[in-house]
Specification:
The complex is a heterodimer. Chain A is of the alpha/beta class. Chain A has a domain at 1-80 and 196-250: P-loop containing nucleotide triphosphate hydrolases (Rossmann fold, 3-Layer(aba) Sandwich), CATH 3.40.50. Chain A contains nine helices and ten strands. In chain A, the strands form two sheets. A six-stranded mixed beta sheet of chain A has the order 6-7-8-3-9-10, with helices on both faces. In chain A, strands 2-1-4-5 form a four-stranded antiparallel beta sheet. Chain B is globular. Chain B folds into two domains: 3-281, no CATH class; 298-500, no CATH class. By secondary structure, chain B is mostly helical. Classes of the chains: A alpha/beta, B mainly alpha.
């Protein structure tokens, strides 16, 4: 069941590099919601999420995470969220367990709690036989799973994922999707960017379509279809129609 | 165009671009500035070269034994350093996956391709040696005549020989001990070969003459009495450097022949060795076994991670072992001084302070800039200040752990000198660390070897402040009033570095 309170609230979020990357973006994600942010390359998805995670400073606007002003009190905001990028952030010379111990230590989690959680997470992601091997020999998929386990070991309330399924095989992708679905069922909020529209279609409670740094459409799949006057269209067709419209309008 | 010529051009282009990237820090806009800087630096280098080597310009055949020993030892020292560099280069080529898959899956003849790669290594080693030796040879030519131009050929000869031996040694290590141990052993070997000759001379000087100066051994009567006769093959490199055309041609032919033999024997094995090394490089290694997660603060978690990664860093060994090896003679000197209240003991303070600064700079780059999971640490609930503080603590703890035994031993002999040395170590290490902090760039730990290229200014500032604090510590013991001037100058260098640093804002 989705709570009415907001897990993430962005108002007027703006970031400019050489060109405007995010253009006064307003976005609200409800507690316990699985939200998929889709859009063409260079639309501003990753920039938006990096600003939410505290990796980029916005030029303007506000970021509120469970009521915490993330720009004013970043440490408190970071305590309750996790960030997973498409490039796994792990150390080659650490084993998955050592990595999770380090992450849990950074988030100040009790060792007894984090150790049990680490073993459980790694086992559920199929990394049980590799607990004590250094990550340097791992495939991209295994590294991504270690990074995901690291993001979940401190039990975040908001999980931000940027293309988490890139490079994963079908079995690994199913593991990851299963784990994320399970987290959402226990009340966690997930916001994810993806180019795999089928994943967004099947997993997300709501979908936001972003183009040229602005949110051009938002809602459940049904709502998106209704907004665009189609009743039996795939997300891919809707996406292309929305992005094309936006490009033409620009 | 034959595949050999094509591949040779490809290798030369890669080598040129790598060199250019090293000089410009990977920024193409800096190419002109880097070239001007290089020319100015090379011009300036003629001054110290003149001070060091100018007095030898009048040497002519027949050489007296002492001159022959000094000249031959200098050439041998250059050979040892080139061999050390070449072993490291060859090991790096073996363990880098790079284009290996592409080459091995192509229809090109592998023996030919890898012969060219071996030749490229030899060319790179010789080319770098030529660049570094140019100011010295220039001084000799200007002061002693055109005959010294032959010294350039000696440098090439030594470079080719070093590269050939490095390839033979490294492939032999693979055969003997396997890819798992070769990387570590080759790095240790490279460090020992690079530093070993100077250290051996210094140790002999300490034991025989109670001084750290290696010239005491080279110019001693004992060395002259052990040296072979004037017509010995041992002096051929020295004779060649002096312009004996016949000897130059013999040595050049011999080095080319050696390289040819190495290419013929080892090129077919190069591919297999490189394949097994790169396969090993991506194979998983087991950790220390399961153990309970440890308690501690967030900063402790960061420090533990940094210590673990430093201990497991595959390239740290070769980068710092040579610095640590240079501490052996001062340590021996110190030990000898327990039974001899030599005033020359003061010499070890600047050596220790200088080594601390250099070591701290390397460790600081690894911990501060070489963060492989920068996003993870940035999204952790810690303030950036506490992250940086934890990383600086790791550097200083490592420095204290390495240098405490030396300072403690010194304290028994001379407490005042120990106190000055301890202060010098801490100030030198802190200076090197803050310079790395001001010039930090996000990089992978595996880019450690190229840390000097990210900022030339930081590299020079680190070197000059290390030298400055070493001189200040020595002067504090000998002429305290002058130490104030030296210290003030070093602080000024540090302040100017801060002013020019990109992090000042």
């Amino acid at each position: 069941m989705k709570s009415e309170g907001s897990a993430l609230r962005l108002r007027g979020l703006t970031k400019r590099f050489d060109r405007l990357a995010v253009d006064a973006l307003d976005l609200t994600i409800r507690m316990g919601e699985f939200y998929a942010l889709v859009g063409p390359n260079g639309a501003g998805k990753t920039t938006t999420l990096r600003m939410v995670a505290g990796l980029l400073k916005p030029d303007a606007g506000s970021v509120s995470i469970f009521g915490i002003d993330a720009l004013r009190d970043p440490v408190a905001a970071k305590q309750i969220m996790a960030w997973v990028s498409d490039e796994p952030m792990i150390y080659d010379k650490l084993t998955p367990l050592e990595y999770l111990e380090f992450v849990a230590g950074l988030w100040g989690i009790e060792p007894k709690v984090s150790q049990a959680s680490a073993h459980e997470l790694l086992a559920s992601l199929g990394l049980g036989p590799h607990l004590n091997e250094r990550c340097e020999g791992f495939s991209k998929g295994m590294r991504q799973k270690v990074a995901l386990a690291g993001a979940l070991v401190h039990d975040p309330r908001l999980i931000i994922l940027d293309e988490p399924l890139t490079g994963l095989d079908a079995v690994s992708a199913r593991h990851v999707k299963g784990l994320l679905g399970e987290r959402v069922r226990t009340g966690c909020t997930v916001i994810m960017t993806t180019h795999i529209l089928e994943v967004a279609e099947r997993m997300a409670d709501r979908i936001g379509v972003i183009s040229s740094g602005r949110l051009v459409a938002e809602g459940t799949l049904t709502e998106l279809r209704q907004q665009n006057g189609h009743t039996d269209t795939s997300l891919e067709d809707l996406f292309i129609a929305l992005v094309d419209v936006k490009v033409e309008a620009a | 165009m034959s595949s050999a010529t094509w591949f040779a051009r490809h290798e030369l282009r890669l080598a040129w671009r790598e060199w250019l990237a090293m000089m410009t820090g990977g920024r193409r806009k800096r190419t002109r500035a880097a070239l001007i800087g290089l020319i100015v630096f090379a011009a300036l280098m003629h001054l110290p070269a003149w001070a060091v080597i100018g007095r030898f310009a009048d040497l002519r055949e027949p050489l007296d034994k002492t001159s022959a020993i000094v000249l031959t030892s200098t050439i041998f020292l250059a050979f040892a350093l080139m061999l050390s560099q070449a072993i490291e280069s060859v090991t790096r080529v073996f363990y880098a996956r790079a284009d290996l898959d592409l080459i091995m899956s192509s229809p090109a003849k592998l023996a030919t391709v890898f012969s060219i790669r071996i030749a490229a290594i030899a060319l790179t080693v010789s080319g770098m040696a030529l660049v570094l030796s140019t100011p010295f040879v220039d001084v000799l030519v200007l002061e002693g005549g055109m005959r010294w131009l032959a010294a350039f050929t000696v440098v090439i000869t030594v470079g080719l020989t070093a590269a050939a031996l490095a390839i033979a040694i490294t492939i032999a290590l693979f055969r003997l001990i396997g890819p798992a141990r070769t990387r570590l052993i080759a790095q240790i070997l490279a460090a020992i070969i690079g530093a070993g000759f100077v250290i051996a001379l210094q140790i002999a000087a300490i034991l025989s003459y109670g001084t750290l100066s290696r010239f005491a051994v080279l110019t001693s009567d004992a060395a002259a009495s052990f040296a072979p006769e004037a017509d010995s093959i041992v002096w051929w490199p020295a004779r060649a450097a002096l312009g004996d055309v016949g000897t130059v041609l013999i040595l050049l032919s011999a080095s080319l022949l050696l390289l040819g033999i190495v290419m013929t024997i080892f090129a077919p094995r190069f591919a297999g060795t490189a394949a097994s090394a790169s396969a090993h490089a991506v194979a998983s290694r087991r950790g220390r076994g399961l153990r309970p997660f440890r308690e501690g603060s967030r900063q402790q978690a960061l420090r533990r991670k940094e210590f673990l990664l430093l201990a497991r860093d595959p390239w740290l060994m070769s980068q710092t072992l040579m610095q640590l090896l240079y501490l052996v003679p001062p340590a021996l000197f110190l030990w000898r001084s327990f039974s001899d209240s030599s005033t020359a003991l003061v010499l070890i303070t600047p050596v220790i302070v200088m080594a601390a600064g250099q070591l701290a700079g390397g460790l600081a780059w690894l911990t501060i800039s070489g963060e492989d999971a920068a996003d993870l640490v940035a999204t952790a609930p810690l303030s950036p200040t506490s992250v940086i503080r934890a990383k600086i603590e790791v550097v200083l703890i490592a420095i204290v752990a390495v240098f405490t035994p030396l300072v403690a031993a010194l304290a028994v002999l001379n407490p005042l000198q120990a106190a000055v040395t301890a202060c010098g170590v801490l100030i030198g290490a802190t200076s090197a660390t803050v310079i790395q902090l001001w010039f930090r760039v996000q990089a992978k730990r595996s880019q450690f070897r190229r840390r000097q290229t990210s900022s030339r200014l930081a590299t020079f500032a680190e070197a000059f402040t290390s030298i400055g604090w070493a001189a200040t510590a020595a002067l504090a013991l000998a002429i305290p009033t002058v130490a104030i001037v030296s210290g003030a100058m070093t602080v000024a260098i540090l302040a100017a570095t801060w002013k020019l640093s990109p992090r000042r804002a």
